[in-house]
Amino acid sequence: MGKDAAGHFVKMVHNGIEYAIMEVISEVYDLLKNGLGYTNDQLHELFGRWNDGRLQSFLIEITRDIFATKDPETGGYLVDMILDKAGAKGTGKWTSQDAMDTGVAIPSIDMAVSMRTLSAYKDDRLKAAALYQPVIHKIQEDPAKFEAQVEAALYVSTIICYAQGLSLLVKASEELQMEIPLKDVVKIWRGGCIIRSTLLETFYQAYLADPNLSNILLDAKVAAEVKAGQQDLRDVVSQAAKSGIAIGAIQSSLAYLESFVSAKMPTNLIQAQRDNFGSHTYQRTDKEGIFHTQWEAHP
Amino acid sequence: MGKDAAGHFVKMVHNGIEYAIMEVISEVYDLLKNGLGYTNDQLHELFGRWNDGRLQSFLIEITRDIFATKDPETGGYLVDMILDKAGAKGTGKWTSQDAMDTGVAIPSIDMAVSMRTLSAYKDDRLKAAALYQPVIHKIQEDPAKFEAQVEAALYVSTIICYAQGLSLLVKASEELQMEIPLKDVVKIWRGGCIIRSTLLETFYQAYLADPNLSNILLDAKVAAEVKAGQQDLRDVVSQAAKSGIAIGAIQSSLAYLESFVSAKMPTNLIQAQRDNFGSHTYQRTDKEGIFHTQWEAHP
What we know:
Two copies of one chain form a homodimer.
Chain A: H1 6-35, H2 40-51, H3 58-67, H4 91-102, H5 107-120, H6 122-132, H7 143-175, H8 182-191, H9 199-209, H10 220-243, H11 248-260, H12 267-278
Helix pairs in contact in A: 1-4, 1-5, 1-7, 2-3, 4-5, 5-11, 7-10, 7-11, 8-9
Protein backbone atom coordinates (compact mmCIF):
# COMPACT_ATOMS: atom_id res chain seq x y z
CA MET A 1 0.00 0.00 0.00
CA GLY A 2 2.78 2.45 -0.87
CA LYS A 3 5.60 3.67 1.32
CA ASP A 4 6.13 4.42 5.00
CA ALA A 5 3.04 5.97 6.60
CA ALA A 6 0.89 5.31 3.52
CA GLY A 7 -1.08 2.52 5.20
CA HIS A 8 -2.06 4.73 8.10
CA PHE A 9 -2.96 7.57 5.78
CA VAL A 10 -5.15 5.32 3.63
CA LYS A 11 -6.95 4.02 6.74
CA MET A 12 -7.53 7.57 7.98
CA VAL A 13 -9.00 8.69 4.66
CA HIS A 14 -11.15 5.53 4.59
CA ASN A 15 -12.63 6.65 7.89
CA GLY A 16 -13.18 10.19 6.62
CA ILE A 17 -15.17 8.82 3.67
CA GLU A 18 -17.05 6.57 6.12
CA TYR A 19 -18.02 9.63 8.23
CA ALA A 20 -19.37 11.42 5.17
CA ILE A 21 -21.38 8.47 3.82
CA MET A 22 -22.86 7.78 7.26
CA GLU A 23 -23.88 11.43 7.56
CA VAL A 24 -25.44 11.37 4.08
CA ILE A 25 -27.42 8.23 5.02
CA SER A 26 -28.61 9.86 8.25
CA GLU A 27 -29.80 12.88 6.26
CA VAL A 28 -31.69 10.60 3.89
CA TYR A 29 -33.26 8.98 6.96
CA ASP A 30 -34.36 12.44 8.16
CA LEU A 31 -35.84 13.29 4.75
CA LEU A 32 -37.79 10.04 4.51
CA LYS A 33 -38.88 9.92 8.15
CA ASN A 34 -39.75 13.58 8.71
CA GLY A 35 -40.26 14.75 5.14
CA LEU A 36 -42.32 11.84 3.84
CA GLY A 37 -43.47 10.31 7.14
CA TYR A 38 -41.97 6.87 6.47
CA THR A 39 -42.14 4.32 9.30
CA ASN A 40 -39.24 2.11 10.36
CA ASP A 41 -40.93 -0.79 8.54
CA GLN A 42 -41.01 1.24 5.33
CA LEU A 43 -37.39 2.31 5.82
CA HIS A 44 -36.37 -1.31 6.39
CA GLU A 45 -38.08 -2.38 3.20
CA LEU A 46 -36.66 0.56 1.21
CA PHE A 47 -33.05 0.13 2.37
CA GLY A 48 -33.40 -3.58 1.59
CA ARG A 49 -34.52 -2.74 -1.93
CA TRP A 50 -31.73 -0.16 -2.33
CA ASN A 51 -29.21 -2.72 -1.16
CA ASP A 52 -30.27 -4.99 -4.02
CA GLY A 53 -29.43 -2.25 -6.52
CA ARG A 54 -26.54 0.05 -7.38
CA LEU A 55 -26.39 1.36 -3.79
CA GLN A 56 -25.37 -2.10 -2.55
CA SER A 57 -22.89 -1.61 0.27
CA PHE A 58 -22.13 -2.64 3.82
CA LEU A 59 -23.46 0.64 5.25
CA ILE A 60 -26.79 0.42 3.39
CA GLU A 61 -27.10 -3.22 4.45
CA ILE A 62 -26.59 -2.58 8.18
CA THR A 63 -28.91 0.43 7.98
CA ARG A 64 -31.58 -1.91 6.58
CA ASP A 65 -30.95 -4.23 9.55
CA ILE A 66 -31.07 -1.38 12.07
CA PHE A 67 -34.58 -0.33 11.01
CA ALA A 68 -35.88 -3.84 11.78
CA THR A 69 -34.18 -4.20 15.16
CA LYS A 70 -36.47 -4.19 18.18
CA ASP A 71 -35.63 -2.81 21.62
CA PRO A 72 -35.90 -5.73 24.09
CA GLU A 73 -36.75 -3.32 26.91
CA THR A 74 -39.69 -1.45 25.40
CA GLY A 75 -40.64 -3.68 22.48
CA GLY A 76 -40.48 -0.67 20.13
CA TYR A 77 -37.84 0.01 17.49
CA LEU A 78 -34.37 0.36 18.96
CA VAL A 79 -33.31 3.20 16.62
CA ASP A 80 -36.02 5.40 18.15
CA MET A 81 -34.60 4.86 21.64
CA ILE A 82 -31.06 5.92 20.75
CA LEU A 83 -29.95 9.38 21.80
CA ASP A 84 -28.93 11.69 18.94
CA LYS A 85 -25.51 12.56 20.38
CA ALA A 86 -22.95 11.08 18.01
CA GLY A 87 -19.53 10.06 19.21
CA ALA A 88 -16.30 10.21 17.23
CA LYS A 89 -12.86 8.69 17.62
CA GLY A 90 -11.15 11.53 15.76
CA THR A 91 -10.29 10.02 12.37
CA GLY A 92 -12.89 12.14 10.53
CA LYS A 93 -11.46 15.26 12.09
CA TRP A 94 -7.89 14.28 11.23
CA THR A 95 -8.89 13.66 7.62
CA SER A 96 -10.39 17.17 7.41
CA GLN A 97 -7.38 18.76 9.08
CA ASP A 98 -4.91 16.90 6.85
CA ALA A 99 -6.90 17.78 3.74
CA MET A 100 -6.68 21.46 4.66
CA ASP A 101 -2.90 21.17 5.08
CA THR A 102 -2.63 19.29 1.79
CA GLY A 103 -4.78 21.85 -0.04
CA VAL A 104 -7.60 19.49 -0.99
CA ALA A 105 -11.30 20.32 -0.59
CA ILE A 106 -13.37 17.63 1.16
CA PRO A 107 -16.45 19.61 2.27
CA SER A 108 -18.77 16.61 2.71
CA ILE A 109 -16.35 15.05 5.19
CA ASP A 110 -15.92 18.41 6.95
CA MET A 111 -19.70 18.69 7.25
CA ALA A 112 -19.98 15.17 8.67
CA VAL A 113 -17.48 16.17 11.36
CA SER A 114 -19.46 19.38 12.05
CA MET A 115 -22.76 17.54 12.36
CA ARG A 116 -21.40 15.02 14.86
CA THR A 117 -19.99 17.94 16.83
CA LEU A 118 -23.29 19.84 16.75
CA SER A 119 -25.19 16.72 17.78
CA ALA A 120 -23.24 16.68 21.03
CA TYR A 121 -24.40 20.22 21.92
CA LYS A 122 -27.69 18.82 23.11
CA ASP A 123 -28.28 21.38 25.87
CA ASP A 124 -27.82 24.34 23.56
CA ARG A 125 -29.98 22.64 20.95
CA LEU A 126 -32.82 22.10 23.39
CA LYS A 127 -32.65 25.77 24.43
CA ALA A 128 -32.58 26.82 20.77
CA ALA A 129 -35.50 24.52 19.91
CA ALA A 130 -37.59 26.18 22.64
CA LEU A 131 -36.64 29.62 21.33
CA TYR A 132 -37.02 28.96 17.60
CA GLN A 133 -39.90 26.41 17.67
CA PRO A 134 -38.88 24.89 14.32
CA VAL A 135 -41.57 23.36 12.13
CA ILE A 136 -40.82 20.69 9.52
CA HIS A 137 -43.01 21.01 6.46
CA LYS A 138 -43.98 17.71 4.84
CA ILE A 139 -42.54 17.23 1.36
CA GLN A 140 -45.23 17.94 -1.22
CA GLU A 141 -44.09 15.47 -3.84
CA ASP A 142 -45.45 12.14 -4.90
CA PRO A 143 -43.69 9.76 -2.44
CA ALA A 144 -42.69 7.24 -5.12
CA LYS A 145 -41.20 10.00 -7.26
CA PHE A 146 -39.41 11.62 -4.34
CA GLU A 147 -38.12 8.26 -3.11
CA ALA A 148 -36.54 7.66 -6.53
CA GLN A 149 -34.98 11.13 -6.46
CA VAL A 150 -33.59 10.49 -2.99
CA GLU A 151 -32.05 7.22 -4.21
CA ALA A 152 -30.30 9.11 -7.01
CA ALA A 153 -29.23 11.92 -4.66
CA LEU A 154 -27.82 9.35 -2.23
CA TYR A 155 -26.01 7.57 -5.05
CA VAL A 156 -24.45 10.72 -6.48
CA SER A 157 -23.59 12.10 -3.03
CA THR A 158 -21.89 8.83 -2.15
CA ILE A 159 -19.80 9.02 -5.33
CA ILE A 160 -18.82 12.59 -4.39
CA CYS A 161 -17.82 11.56 -0.85
CA TYR A 162 -15.51 8.92 -2.33
CA ALA A 163 -14.26 11.44 -4.91
CA GLN A 164 -13.25 13.89 -2.19
CA GLY A 165 -11.42 11.28 -0.10
CA LEU A 166 -9.73 9.67 -3.11
CA SER A 167 -8.57 13.07 -4.42
CA LEU A 168 -6.94 13.65 -1.03
CA LEU A 169 -5.12 10.31 -1.33
CA VAL A 170 -3.86 11.24 -4.81
CA LYS A 171 -2.55 14.64 -3.74
CA ALA A 172 -1.07 13.49 -0.42
CA SER A 173 0.59 10.55 -2.14
CA GLU A 174 2.28 12.94 -4.59
CA GLU A 175 3.28 15.53 -2.01
CA LEU A 176 4.61 13.10 0.54
CA GLN A 177 6.00 10.68 -2.06
CA MET A 178 3.98 7.84 -0.58
CA GLU A 179 3.35 6.20 -3.97
CA ILE A 180 -0.12 5.04 -2.97
CA PRO A 181 -1.55 2.82 -5.73
CA LEU A 182 -5.15 4.02 -5.95
CA LYS A 183 -6.22 1.04 -8.03
CA ASP A 184 -5.10 -1.33 -5.27
CA VAL A 185 -6.62 0.83 -2.52
CA VAL A 186 -10.12 0.63 -3.96
CA LYS A 187 -9.66 -3.08 -4.70
CA ILE A 188 -8.66 -3.79 -1.11
CA TRP A 189 -11.51 -1.63 0.20
CA ARG A 190 -13.89 -3.66 -1.93
CA GLY A 191 -12.60 -6.85 -0.36
CA GLY A 192 -13.74 -5.90 3.10
CA CYS A 193 -14.07 -2.70 5.08
CA ILE A 194 -16.84 -0.46 6.33
CA ILE A 195 -17.12 1.49 3.07
CA ARG A 196 -17.11 -1.62 0.86
CA SER A 197 -19.62 -1.20 -1.95
CA THR A 198 -20.42 -2.19 -5.49
CA LEU A 199 -19.42 1.32 -6.55
CA LEU A 200 -15.76 0.59 -5.79
CA GLU A 201 -15.65 -1.68 -8.84
CA THR A 202 -16.44 1.33 -11.04
CA PHE A 203 -13.61 3.26 -9.41
CA TYR A 204 -11.26 0.29 -9.84
CA GLN A 205 -11.98 0.28 -13.57
CA ALA A 206 -11.39 4.03 -13.70
CA TYR A 207 -7.95 3.76 -12.05
CA LEU A 208 -7.12 0.77 -14.24
CA ALA A 209 -7.79 2.93 -17.30
CA ASP A 210 -5.91 5.93 -15.88
CA PRO A 211 -3.68 5.37 -12.84
CA ASN A 212 -2.99 9.12 -12.66
CA LEU A 213 -6.61 10.25 -12.51
CA SER A 214 -6.59 13.32 -10.24
CA ASN A 215 -10.29 13.11 -9.45
CA ILE A 216 -12.67 10.21 -9.95
CA LEU A 217 -15.31 12.66 -11.22
CA LEU A 218 -13.15 13.10 -14.33
CA ASP A 219 -13.62 9.45 -15.37
CA ALA A 220 -16.08 9.25 -18.27
CA LYS A 221 -18.19 6.43 -16.79
CA VAL A 222 -18.38 8.08 -13.36
CA ALA A 223 -19.24 11.39 -15.04
CA ALA A 224 -22.09 9.73 -16.93
CA GLU A 225 -23.52 8.33 -13.68
CA VAL A 226 -23.20 11.66 -11.89
CA LYS A 227 -24.74 13.62 -14.75
CA ALA A 228 -27.68 11.22 -14.83
CA GLY A 229 -28.45 11.91 -11.16
CA GLN A 230 -27.42 15.55 -10.88
CA GLN A 231 -30.88 17.03 -11.41
CA ASP A 232 -32.36 14.68 -8.79
CA LEU A 233 -29.66 15.77 -6.36
CA ARG A 234 -30.55 19.40 -7.04
CA ASP A 235 -34.25 18.72 -6.58
CA VAL A 236 -33.69 16.91 -3.28
CA VAL A 237 -31.56 19.76 -1.92
CA SER A 238 -34.22 22.20 -3.06
CA GLN A 239 -37.05 20.23 -1.38
CA ALA A 240 -35.11 19.71 1.85
CA ALA A 241 -34.41 23.43 2.14
CA LYS A 242 -38.11 24.23 1.70
CA SER A 243 -39.05 21.61 4.33
CA GLY A 244 -36.61 22.85 6.95
CA ILE A 245 -34.70 19.56 7.04
CA ALA A 246 -30.93 19.96 7.42
CA ILE A 247 -29.02 17.93 4.85
CA GLY A 248 -25.60 19.50 5.23
CA ALA A 249 -23.47 16.74 3.74
CA ILE A 250 -25.78 16.19 0.76
CA GLN A 251 -25.79 19.96 0.14
CA SER A 252 -22.01 20.06 0.47
CA SER A 253 -21.71 17.29 -2.09
CA LEU A 254 -23.84 19.32 -4.49
CA ALA A 255 -21.83 22.51 -3.86
CA TYR A 256 -18.62 20.55 -4.44
CA LEU A 257 -19.97 19.10 -7.69
CA GLU A 258 -21.30 22.39 -9.08
CA SER A 259 -18.03 24.15 -8.24
CA PHE A 260 -15.79 21.36 -9.49
CA VAL A 261 -17.49 21.35 -12.91
CA SER A 262 -17.53 25.15 -13.14
CA ALA A 263 -15.09 26.85 -15.49
CA LYS A 264 -15.78 30.12 -13.67
CA MET A 265 -16.36 30.34 -9.93
CA PRO A 266 -17.31 33.67 -8.29
CA THR A 267 -13.96 33.72 -6.46
CA ASN A 268 -12.81 36.54 -8.74
CA LEU A 269 -14.79 38.75 -6.35
CA ILE A 270 -12.90 37.34 -3.35
CA GLN A 271 -9.61 38.18 -5.07
CA ALA A 272 -10.88 41.69 -5.74
CA GLN A 273 -11.83 42.08 -2.06
CA ARG A 274 -8.46 40.71 -0.88
CA ASP A 275 -6.61 43.10 -3.16
CA ASN A 276 -8.84 45.97 -2.06
CA PHE A 277 -8.35 45.64 1.69
CA GLY A 278 -4.99 43.88 1.90
CA SER A 279 -3.13 44.46 -1.39
CA HIS A 280 -2.96 40.67 -1.78
CA THR A 281 -2.78 41.03 -5.62
CA TYR A 282 -4.67 39.06 -8.26
CA GLN A 283 -4.18 37.32 -11.60
CA ARG A 284 -5.97 38.33 -14.79
CA THR A 285 -7.98 36.31 -17.27
CA ASP A 286 -6.36 37.93 -20.30
CA LYS A 287 -2.65 37.72 -19.53
CA GLU A 288 -0.01 36.24 -17.25
CA GLY A 289 1.32 38.08 -14.23
CA ILE A 290 0.48 39.33 -10.76
CA PHE A 291 -1.45 42.60 -10.49
CA HIS A 292 -2.52 45.10 -7.88
CA THR A 293 -4.97 47.98 -8.15
CA GLN A 294 -5.34 51.11 -6.05
CA TRP A 295 -9.03 50.62 -5.36
CA GLU A 296 -11.06 53.72 -4.76
CA ALA A 297 -14.40 54.38 -3.10
CA HIS A 298 -17.36 54.58 -5.49
CA PRO A 299 -20.34 55.50 -3.31
CA MET B 1 -8.15 40.89 25.32
CA GLY B 2 -7.73 38.03 27.81
CA LYS B 3 -4.63 36.09 28.68
CA ASP B 4 -1.50 34.85 26.91
CA ALA B 5 -2.21 33.81 23.35
CA ALA B 6 -5.77 35.17 23.48
CA GLY B 7 -5.00 38.11 21.18
CA HIS B 8 -3.62 35.85 18.48
CA PHE B 9 -6.54 33.47 18.83
CA VAL B 10 -9.07 36.31 18.53
CA LYS B 11 -7.32 37.61 15.40
CA MET B 12 -7.31 34.12 13.87
CA VAL B 13 -11.04 33.64 14.49
CA HIS B 14 -11.69 37.14 13.11
CA ASN B 15 -10.07 36.01 9.89
CA GLY B 16 -12.08 32.78 9.85
CA ILE B 17 -15.31 34.78 10.08
CA GLU B 18 -13.95 37.10 7.37
CA TYR B 19 -13.38 34.09 5.05
CA ALA B 20 -16.95 32.91 5.58
CA ILE B 21 -18.59 36.29 5.03
CA MET B 22 -16.50 36.93 1.89
CA GLU B 23 -17.53 33.51 0.54
CA VAL B 24 -21.19 34.22 1.30
CA ILE B 25 -20.95 37.56 -0.53
CA SER B 26 -19.30 35.89 -3.53
CA GLU B 27 -22.16 33.36 -3.64
CA VAL B 28 -24.70 36.20 -3.55
CA TYR B 29 -22.78 37.77 -6.45
CA ASP B 30 -23.09 34.47 -8.37
CA LEU B 31 -26.83 34.28 -7.67
CA LEU B 32 -27.48 37.84 -8.78
CA LYS B 33 -25.14 37.80 -11.76
CA ASN B 34 -25.86 34.36 -13.16
CA GLY B 35 -29.26 33.65 -11.63
CA LEU B 36 -30.90 37.03 -12.24
CA GLY B 37 -28.60 38.41 -14.94
CA TYR B 38 -27.63 41.56 -12.99
CA THR B 39 -24.95 43.79 -14.53
CA ASN B 40 -22.06 45.27 -12.57
CA ASP B 41 -23.91 48.60 -12.59
CA GLN B 42 -26.93 46.98 -11.00
CA LEU B 43 -24.72 45.18 -8.47
CA HIS B 44 -23.00 48.47 -7.62
CA GLU B 45 -26.32 50.16 -7.04
CA LEU B 46 -27.70 47.22 -5.01
CA PHE B 47 -24.67 46.83 -2.73
CA GLY B 48 -24.76 50.58 -2.19
CA ARG B 49 -28.40 50.34 -1.14
CA TRP B 50 -27.67 47.33 1.09
CA ASN B 51 -24.83 49.22 2.71
CA ASP B 52 -27.28 51.94 3.73
CA GLY B 53 -29.37 49.34 5.60
CA ARG B 54 -28.89 46.62 8.20
CA LEU B 55 -26.17 44.96 6.11
CA GLN B 56 -23.93 48.02 6.55
CA SER B 57 -20.36 46.79 6.87
CA PHE B 58 -16.88 47.29 5.53
CA LEU B 59 -17.09 44.21 3.28
CA ILE B 60 -20.40 45.25 1.70
CA GLU B 61 -19.02 48.75 1.20
CA ILE B 62 -15.86 47.65 -0.62
CA THR B 63 -17.88 45.18 -2.69
CA ARG B 64 -20.04 48.12 -3.79
CA ASP B 65 -16.86 49.97 -4.78
CA ILE B 66 -15.44 46.97 -6.63
CA PHE B 67 -18.45 46.71 -8.95
CA ALA B 68 -17.88 50.31 -10.10
CA THR B 69 -14.14 49.99 -10.65
CA LYS B 70 -12.97 50.13 -14.27
CA ASP B 71 -10.00 48.29 -15.72
CA PRO B 72 -7.60 50.94 -17.08
CA GLU B 73 -6.25 48.46 -19.65
CA THR B 74 -9.48 47.35 -21.33
CA GLY B 75 -11.94 50.00 -20.18
CA GLY B 76 -14.32 47.27 -18.99
CA TYR B 77 -15.12 46.36 -15.40
CA LEU B 78 -12.05 45.21 -13.49
CA VAL B 79 -13.89 42.47 -11.54
CA ASP B 80 -14.59 40.67 -14.83
CA MET B 81 -10.89 40.59 -15.67
CA ILE B 82 -9.82 38.97 -12.41
CA LEU B 83 -9.02 35.27 -12.46
CA ASP B 84 -11.20 33.11 -10.19
CA LYS B 85 -8.30 31.47 -8.36
CA ALA B 86 -8.49 32.65 -4.76
CA GLY B 87 -5.42 32.87 -2.60
CA ALA B 88 -5.24 32.31 1.15
CA LYS B 89 -2.73 33.10 3.85
CA GLY B 90 -3.82 30.19 6.03
CA THR B 91 -5.79 31.83 8.85
CA GLY B 92 -9.14 30.44 7.62
CA LYS B 93 -7.67 26.95 7.55
CA TRP B 94 -6.18 27.32 11.03
CA THR B 95 -9.54 28.48 12.37
CA SER B 96 -11.22 25.36 10.94
CA GLN B 97 -8.50 23.07 12.23
CA ASP B 98 -8.56 24.62 15.71
CA ALA B 99 -12.36 24.45 15.84
CA MET B 100 -12.20 20.73 15.11
CA ASP B 101 -9.70 20.25 17.93
CA THR B 102 -11.84 22.35 20.26
CA GLY B 103 -15.00 20.44 19.33
CA VAL B 104 -16.88 23.38 17.84
CA ALA B 105 -18.79 23.25 14.54
CA ILE B 106 -18.02 26.10 12.12
CA PRO B 107 -19.22 24.63 8.79
CA SER B 108 -19.58 27.97 6.96
CA ILE B 109 -15.94 28.79 7.64
CA ASP B 110 -14.91 25.24 6.62
CA MET B 111 -16.84 25.66 3.37
CA ALA B 112 -15.17 29.01 2.67
CA VAL B 113 -11.80 27.29 3.02
CA SER B 114 -12.95 24.47 0.70
CA MET B 115 -14.19 26.87 -1.96
CA ARG B 116 -10.93 28.82 -2.05
CA THR B 117 -9.12 25.51 -2.36
CA LEU B 118 -11.38 24.28 -5.17
CA SER B 119 -11.03 27.60 -6.97
CA ALA B 120 -7.30 26.94 -7.30
CA TYR B 121 -7.90 23.61 -9.11
CA LYS B 122 -8.51 25.49 -12.32
CA ASP B 123 -7.09 22.83 -14.66
CA ASP B 124 -9.29 20.08 -13.22
CA ARG B 125 -12.29 22.41 -13.29
CA LEU B 126 -11.77 23.24 -16.95
CA LYS B 127 -11.54 19.52 -17.78
CA ALA B 128 -14.66 18.85 -15.70
CA ALA B 129 -16.54 21.73 -17.33
CA ALA B 130 -15.82 20.26 -20.75
CA LEU B 131 -17.01 16.83 -19.57
CA TYR B 132 -20.12 17.93 -17.64
CA GLN B 133 -21.18 20.95 -19.75
CA PRO B 134 -23.02 22.57 -16.84
CA VAL B 135 -26.00 24.81 -17.58
CA ILE B 136 -27.18 27.54 -15.20
CA HIS B 137 -30.95 27.94 -15.22
CA LYS B 138 -32.16 31.50 -14.73
CA ILE B 139 -34.07 32.04 -11.50
CA GLN B 140 -37.77 32.13 -12.24
CA GLU B 141 -38.80 34.59 -9.54
CA ASP B 142 -39.76 38.21 -9.71
CA PRO B 143 -36.33 39.95 -9.49
CA ALA B 144 -37.46 42.49 -6.88
CA LYS B 145 -38.89 39.71 -4.70
CA PHE B 146 -35.84 37.49 -5.10
CA GLU B 147 -33.49 40.42 -4.45
CA ALA B 148 -35.25 41.03 -1.11
CA GLN B 149 -34.99 37.33 -0.23
CA VAL B 150 -31.28 37.35 -1.07
CA GLU B 151 -30.80 40.37 1.19
CA ALA B 152 -32.45 38.46 4.05
CA ALA B 153 -30.48 35.28 3.29
CA LEU B 154 -27.24 37.27 3.25
CA TYR B 155 -28.17 38.95 6.55
CA VAL B 156 -29.04 35.70 8.32
CA SER B 157 -26.05 33.85 6.86
CA THR B 158 -23.77 36.64 8.05
CA ILE B 159 -25.20 36.37 11.57
CA ILE B 160 -24.58 32.61 11.46
CA CYS B 161 -20.96 33.07 10.29
CA TYR B 162 -20.36 35.35 13.28
CA ALA B 163 -22.22 32.91 15.55
CA GLN B 164 -19.93 30.06 14.55
CA GLY B 165 -16.75 32.04 15.07
CA LEU B 166 -17.90 33.60 18.34
CA SER B 167 -18.97 30.18 19.70
CA LEU B 168 -15.43 28.97 18.98
CA LEU B 169 -14.02 31.91 20.95
CA VAL B 170 -16.31 31.11 23.91
CA LYS B 171 -15.35 27.43 24.02
CA ALA B 172 -11.64 27.94 23.39
CA SER B 173 -11.53 30.66 26.01
CA GLU B 174 -13.01 28.24 28.57
CA GLU B 175 -10.88 25.27 27.61
CA LEU B 176 -7.60 27.14 27.43
CA GLN B 177 -8.47 29.49 30.31
CA MET B 178 -7.86 32.50 28.08
CA GLU B 179 -10.64 34.57 29.73
CA ILE B 180 -11.54 36.27 26.47
CA PRO B 181 -14.15 38.97 27.13
CA LEU B 182 -16.56 38.51 24.23
CA LYS B 183 -18.27 41.83 24.87
CA ASP B 184 -14.98 43.66 24.40
CA VAL B 185 -14.01 41.59 21.39
CA VAL B 186 -17.09 42.58 19.40
CA LYS B 187 -16.73 46.18 20.58
CA ILE B 188 -13.13 46.33 19.37
CA TRP B 189 -14.06 44.64 16.09
CA ARG B 190 -16.72 47.28 15.62
CA GLY B 191 -14.16 50.00 16.07
CA GLY B 192 -12.16 48.94 13.06
CA CYS B 193 -11.34 45.68 11.31
CA ILE B 194 -12.31 43.91 8.12
CA ILE B 195 -15.47 42.38 9.59
CA ARG B 196 -16.67 45.63 11.20
CA SER B 197 -20.41 45.99 10.76
CA THR B 198 -23.53 47.47 12.26
CA LEU B 199 -24.50 43.94 13.35
CA LEU B 200 -21.71 43.87 15.92
CA GLU B 201 -23.67 46.38 18.00
CA THR B 202 -26.46 43.80 18.34
CA PHE B 203 -23.93 41.21 19.50
CA TYR B 204 -22.41 43.72 21.93
CA GLN B 205 -25.82 44.22 23.53
CA ALA B 206 -26.30 40.45 23.70
CA TYR B 207 -23.01 39.90 25.56
CA LEU B 208 -23.75 42.90 27.77
CA ALA B 209 -27.00 41.20 28.80
CA ASP B 210 -25.39 37.77 29.22
CA PRO B 211 -21.58 37.60 29.31
CA ASN B 212 -21.77 33.78 29.39
CA LEU B 213 -23.87 33.36 26.26
CA SER B 214 -22.60 30.13 24.66
CA ASN B 215 -23.99 30.97 21.22
CA ILE B 216 -25.17 34.30 19.89
CA LEU B 217 -28.14 32.55 18.25
CA LEU B 218 -29.54 32.01 21.77
CA ASP B 219 -29.93 35.76 22.35
CA ALA B 220 -33.61 36.72 22.07
CA LYS B 221 -33.06 39.73 19.78
CA VAL B 222 -30.71 37.81 17.49
CA ALA B 223 -33.18 34.91 17.43
CA ALA B 224 -35.98 37.25 16.40
CA GLU B 225 -33.89 38.58 13.49
CA VAL B 226 -32.89 35.09 12.38
CA LYS B 227 -36.44 33.75 12.59
CA ALA B 228 -37.70 36.67 10.51
CA GLY B 229 -35.29 35.79 7.69
CA GLN B 230 -35.19 32.00 8.00
CA GLN B 231 -37.83 31.27 5.35
CA ASP B 232 -36.10 33.59 2.89
CA LEU B 233 -32.83 31.77 3.54
CA ARG B 234 -34.57 28.45 2.85
CA ASP B 235 -36.13 29.80 -0.34
CA VAL B 236 -32.81 31.13 -1.63
CA VAL B 237 -31.07 27.79 -0.97
CA SER B 238 -33.94 26.04 -2.71
CA GLN B 239 -33.79 28.33 -5.76
CA ALA B 240 -29.99 28.15 -6.02
CA ALA B 241 -30.09 24.34 -6.01
CA LYS B 242 -32.65 24.32 -8.81
CA SER B 243 -30.57 26.79 -10.84
CA GLY B 244 -27.32 24.87 -10.51
CA ILE B 245 -25.54 27.71 -8.69
CA ALA B 246 -23.21 26.56 -5.91
CA ILE B 247 -23.83 28.44 -2.68
CA GLY B 248 -21.92 26.19 -0.30
CA ALA B 249 -21.40 28.63 2.57
CA ILE B 250 -24.99 29.90 2.50
CA GLN B 251 -26.23 26.28 2.47
CA SER B 252 -23.86 25.44 5.31
CA SER B 253 -25.23 28.34 7.33
CA LEU B 254 -28.75 27.01 6.80
CA ALA B 255 -27.73 23.44 7.74
CA TYR B 256 -26.04 24.80 10.86
CA LEU B 257 -29.12 26.79 11.81
CA GLU B 258 -31.62 23.97 11.21
CA SER B 259 -29.45 21.54 13.19
CA PHE B 260 -28.68 23.96 16.00
CA VAL B 261 -32.38 24.64 16.62
CA SER B 262 -33.31 20.95 16.33
CA ALA B 263 -34.19 19.05 19.51
CA LYS B 264 -33.71 15.82 17.58
CA MET B 265 -31.07 15.36 14.91
CA PRO B 266 -30.91 12.12 12.85
CA THR B 267 -27.57 11.26 14.48
CA ASN B 268 -29.31 8.50 16.46
CA LEU B 269 -28.91 6.49 13.26
CA ILE B 270 -25.17 7.20 13.17
CA GLN B 271 -24.87 5.93 16.75
CA ALA B 272 -26.79 2.80 15.76
CA GLN B 273 -24.43 2.25 12.82
CA ARG B 274 -21.36 2.82 14.99
CA ASP B 275 -22.61 0.37 17.57
CA ASN B 276 -23.51 -2.13 14.85
CA PHE B 277 -20.15 -2.26 13.09
CA GLY B 278 -17.77 -1.22 15.86
CA SER B 279 -19.50 -1.80 19.22
CA HIS B 280 -18.99 1.90 19.94
CA THR B 281 -22.06 1.89 22.30
CA TYR B 282 -24.87 4.45 22.49
CA GLN B 283 -26.96 6.37 25.01
CA ARG B 284 -30.72 6.04 25.32
CA THR B 285 -33.45 8.65 25.32
CA ASP B 286 -35.30 7.06 28.25
CA LYS B 287 -32.57 6.48 30.82
CA GLU B 288 -28.97 7.20 31.75
CA GLY B 289 -26.15 4.85 30.89
CA ILE B 290 -24.07 3.45 28.06
CA PHE B 291 -25.55 0.60 26.04
CA HIS B 292 -24.52 -1.91 23.41
CA THR B 293 -26.64 -4.23 21.30
CA GLN B 294 -25.74 -7.42 19.47
CA TRP B 295 -27.15 -6.31 16.14
CA GLU B 296 -28.40 -9.01 13.84
CA ALA B 297 -29.06 -9.16 10.13
CA HIS B 298 -32.67 -8.56 9.10
CA PRO B 299 -32.75 -9.10 5.36
